[in-house]
Structures
1.
Amino acid sequence: MRAKSPALDRFRIAAAVLVAAIHTSPLTTYTADGDFFLTRVLARLAVPFFFLVTGYFLSRSEWNSLPRFLKKTGLLYLAAMLFYLPLNLYSRNLSGWQNIVRGILFDGTFYHLWYFPAVLLGSLLAFLLSRKGPRFALTAAGLLYLIGLGGDSYYGLVSSLPFGKAFYDILFSLSAYTRNGIFFAPLFLLLGAYAKRRNPRLCLVGFLLSFAAMSVEAFLLRAAEAQRHDSMYLLLPFCSLFLFSLLLSRNSGQNRDARRFSAVFYVIHPWCIVLVRGGAEMLGLEAVLVSNSLGHFLAVLLFSAAVSLSAVFFLPRRPSETGRAWCEIDLRALRSNTFLLQRKAGVHSALMAVIKADAYGHGAIPCARALRRCGVRAFAVATLEEGITLRRAAVRGTILILGYTPPSEADLLVRWRLTQAVMDEPYARQLAAQGRRVAVHVAVDTGMHRIGIPVEEVAAFRRVYRLPHLRFTGIFSHLCTANGRSPQEESFAQMQTNAFLQLVSVLRSCGCPVGDTHLLASAGILRFPQQPCSYVRAGLALFGAWETQEERDESCGLRPVLSLRARIVSVRRLETGERAGYGLAFEAKRPTVLATVSIGYADGLPRSLAAQGGEVLLHGKRVPMVGRLCMDQLLIDATDAGETYSGEIVTLIGRDGEERISAEELAGHCGTITNELFSRLGERLGRCILP
Ligand SMILES: *Cc1c(COP(=O)(O)O)cnc(C)c1O
């Protein structure tokens, strides 16, 4: 995996400069038409671009990062308002509480700050609309945009219609412009959210054509004196989308310094305008720095850029997720697996997604949200804490705790609306004795002898169903030989299935409120016929994995969700006979390029991996791990992978070029199963969510 070209982040700088152009009108001294074209047509692409990028990144995380985004942007807005307070006080442009409230909620308290309330309100609105599906969301946002258009560039035409003026007068009493978080921002945010990589040539042609048409539109509207304001054109959304898709098709990686530069530049440039004017007056340079529009623009540009650069340099920043070692989570694969498993489960069974152990190391919260969007309404976890974590992240639906919760925590179960598995009869009594109305699923021991009331003890079940307080919403069992291929294992699974189904029908006929039923986990769903149960419980299969390499079945169409990658730390050459690593366990049998990789057993890799044939992908080739695996690093023999540099990415699980290392293969080297490997992936790993 090689160098990145962060086209989107780089374009942010150009967009910020275009905004400064809008506020300084660089060409007025020379040509009024040219300046109109630059600042009222071309530069009008800048702010929509910011909305598109924001929508794109919010949707990439399935809108998971929306709360964090709102908080961060809200704080930035607050800081910016305080920063401009001196200018507000000086110019007295914010008088009267209505003006202040209107300013804070819609128009911004200083002219360029309207962007912040617009992106806050707009992203909230876009998120709510997107929950109804893309078609609805885009239609609704498009209609809002059309209304906004009538109050902007088309005002002169629309206000002559009956009621047109009255309608917009009401709107303008709430917000000075329709270019705000309701009529303007949502459409661009949603276009960004649904944007895809497309053929770059097509995008370029589309952009040039739509931009030419938008220029004609703008000049016609200006000639007709229809414009009350000049932020919105009918063709602006098309033009912006083509431009964004063009950049997206060229985009790989990020440049966070460019992001921060553009944000600081955007916020501070109006202050710089004031200071340039003041400074020019003091120095007697008004002719060059103020009266000449281009000189003025350049002075503002240089001054703002210098301040922004120093801010980027001095402000603290957080480490990147993909700096050292990280998991890449492909939500598209997760969605495709979910739909496939829902089909396999049949029309009578719904999917209960088992996302214990942080969704097998994949990240419970982003996975749960993605699953809910695929229609999953029931989840299973192993512990009370895991359940509460999901609820705190606003995950709705049934959440079943499969593992032990101390009965004394019954109040937490109720407070967080969690459903508890009943381990056995004594547990049921202890839980009922808490006097809380806990929802429970009764576990049935059909032969695994791990948890559950023994299937033959019908009397024990009847005693449990008579206990007070408990709310019985389900009953389940678990197969312990579903992965096995031998006739004995298959017949044991069959016996367990029959015993469970028969118990359910006996209990029903006794009037016990059994509720929802479930039995099959991943292996059972994939291998056995559909059962008449309310749910199937899929864990590992959701993540496109099997327990072992032998079970892996490419033909069934499940796709791996997780990739594990790390960086090369250092590269060196060893002569034949030189040794390396702890215990000098590696000896070079030839002149060797030895590379150090920034991942170790503290990140969850089994320590035995290097000694047992572990490999990584580098430049799309397999290369072996050598020596002893360390806590935070491991060594690879990169001799056959071509020129290698520090900072390059190696793949431990996943694809690089034509080659792929599966999680099953890696687990197999160490005599374990993928479940164990995944659930041990350390918290120290970054997590990078692909949309
Ligand atoms: C973990 C677990 C599952 C999920 O198993 P997979 O094989 O990962 O699908 C299902 N049921 C119970 C009781 C479990 O503990």
Note: The mean pLDDT is 95.
2.
Amino acid sequence: MEYEDVTEIHEEFGGDRLPPGQRETSAFPVLSKGDVPSWDPETWEFRCWGAIENELSYTFDAFQQLPHESQRQDFHCVTGWSRLDCVFTGVTFPTLANRAGVSDDAVHVMFHALDGYTTDLPLSDCLRDEVMFAWELDGEPLTGEHGGPLRVVTPHKYAYKGPKWITGIEFLTEKKRGYWEKRGYSQTANPWHEERYS
Ligand SMILES: Nc1nc2c(c(=O)[nH]1)N[C@H]1C(S)=C(S)[C@@H](COP(=O)(O)O)O[C@H]1N2
Ligand SMILES: [Mo]
């Protein structure tokens, strides 16, 4: 399958491909704060709101019609495992942001998910092509436990910055903290600087 390889992004942060304190796993462990939420393809929608010019809303079918691509990425969990060479297929954050028309005063982003999970990032950390809204892993639809129908991936951050079961993005004019960020995990979450806790 055709994909872009972005596994060299560690060079930008001056680190090795395997960040410090991480061990490689060939399995793909599941890490969720609760049960896998159910979703209804009839009513499911993905929304963008807040500090943007055009509020957006997509059904799952419509979302998959957006321009999309596949990328080979690494996945680093804050608890210490990394799964290298994941091929994710989806829509990039900049593609959506362009359609939304992000306001000049937007500085931060809150992601919202079906299970009530939230996570936040500075807008500048989201406006990167490797931040993707993915529905496929290694050519197969994402399983429910790994965030299907749609999840976010953030290969430049620990994986708690990538919500599974994503339902929307809120563009913010000030910083706010998400689920784990309120409970002591780092807001910046750079794996090469080992920003695990705040
Ligand atoms: N909606 C939601 N997204 C989530 C989580 C969660 O509990 N709920 N856990 C996060 C954490 S801590 C990690 S490490 C990754 C794990 O993804 P995986 O279960 O596919 O390995 O999902 C992240 N996204
Ligand atoms: Mo995690």
Note: The pocket of MTE (ligand 1) is lined by residues 28-33, 77, 113, 115, 117, 146-147, 159-160, 162-165 (CB under 6 Å).
